[in-house]
Amino acid sequence: MIVLALTLVASIFGGWAVSKSNDDRLDAALDTPGTFDAPGGGIPTAPAIQGDPLPDLTVKSLTGDNVTLRSLIGQPMVINVWYSSCVPCAKELPAFGAVHRAIGEQVRFVGLNTQDSAAKAERFARDAGADYEILLDRSSGVPAALQLGVFPTTLLVDAAGQIVELHQGPLSADALRRLITEKLRI
Known about the structure:
By secondary structure, this protein is an alpha/beta fold. It has helices at about 1-20, 85-105, 120-125, 140-145, 175-185; strands spanning about 60, 65-70, 75-80, 110-115, 135, 155, 165-170. It has a 7-stranded mixed β-sheet with strand order 2-1-5-4-3-6-7. Helix 2 links the parallel strand 3 and strand 4 (about 110-115). Helix 2 crosses helix 5 (about 175-185).
């Protein structure tokens, strides 16, 4: 019993001594809320691909036919990478549908679904009002090749096939329209 009591006292005293040795760190100021700067490095989630050509990768049409991304080149293009269980993706699809209806004759809209079956992707897009071309990339070859880590991701590609903008995260109709106007000059 005495050994247990001595061990308890030694543990308490030892813990107190260690905590006191770290007191000099307590004088450090905390960041102002909303001003924390995360350390650099790590895994890039927004690669610098502006100016790169659209990769020559093969995806599938909703009917199962192979489609190369390079075969889509010929007019300015918006490629939206999404999937149905992605909440931000689902929230932005109606905005993409609205912008497509407004300027779809000037810009080719392509939805690139990375996870769903053809039937689910088509139904989900149509229910959201995104009545433009939907392609499937179930192997996620495009996100891997472009180092995409955030969904949804939108690529703006000029008529020559150069990526002029990469936007990761959801876009409103106004923000999408602004990007198209600024980057594709439509």
